[in-house]
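My main concern about presentation is that the manuscript never shows what a single data entry looks like. Each protein is reduced to its one-letter sequence and a matching series of backbone shape codes. For the editor and my fellow referees, an illustration may be useful. For illustration, here is how one protein appears when written out as sequence plus structure tokens:
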Amino acid sequence: MLKHTIKALVCAVSIGLAGVAQAAESASTDPIVIKFSHVVADNTPKGQGALMFKKLVEERLPGKVKVEVYPNSSLFGDGKEMEALLIGDVQMLAPSLAKFEHYAKPVQIFDLPFLFDNIEAVDRFQASPEGRALLTSMEDKNITGLAYWHNGMKQLSANEPLREPSDARGLKFRVQASNVLEEQFKALRANPRKMSFAEVYQGLQTGVVNGTENTWSNYYSQKVHEVQPYFTHSDHGVIDYMLITNTEFWKGLPDDVRTELEKIIDEVTVAVNKQADDLNREARAAIEKAGTSEIIELTPEQRQKWREAMKPVWDKFEDEIGADLIKAAEASNTP
């Protein structure tokens, strides 16, 4: 009787251990899941970049890594995505650079108006040692920057024509959650209103705000030209993204996986930045073709007036951002 009992126990333990081993083996073969959440449409530079990242990862790391892309605030909106990354509910985001002021004050440099003459100057600064250092400046907050992705230069829109800085006075402008961008519009004696990206169309349609700033591709993909009769080609700032991940998650990846992901990110970044320029040109042409809005071209003299009206914002944030960093960014305007 005792022999039978012992045999049964041994058998049960063996089966149990086999089950544990099988479960462990199964778990070890489960792919690493990267949830990539963003707030814009698929047909924007960031949207296209996220899809290209997914495609290349699943081609080159089959069975090892699975990427799930959630566009258009379908998983988390502007206000929640950073929190979701920090607690591990998502593994990858590409927020606008304006979103990082609470994590690293120097990143606010990208919001300073009329700092960069064009997107080529932005490229040079982001590739510089000073620009690269900003990517790792938030690791003590559990945020690792992986790359900069272009969206493009910003233009102004409003329900009234904006030719001179005084034309903006008293208007309500939607801004991202950025103190620098708030001060930018206050310098014009306009009224900035912080609002999430997903709410912009309705806000403009209902008159909660009268205008905004964005890139041509974001304007077109969100159909802002349907509710804004005037656009001003100002190139007064840049909307770019920082591709980021949870530091703990990133450093916990197997070395071979992380190395391959870094290669893929470098490749996608080149493609995104090239495509951003193409998409912005196409979007501007599509807005013109729609015929619902007038696009105002500033003369060099008018643009200089806008620059002079907004430049005092630089002094207000010099201590937070750093005078040397601002000088390095200014220097990038010279090829």
Q: What stands out?
A: Confidence is low (pLDDT under 50) at residues 8-27.
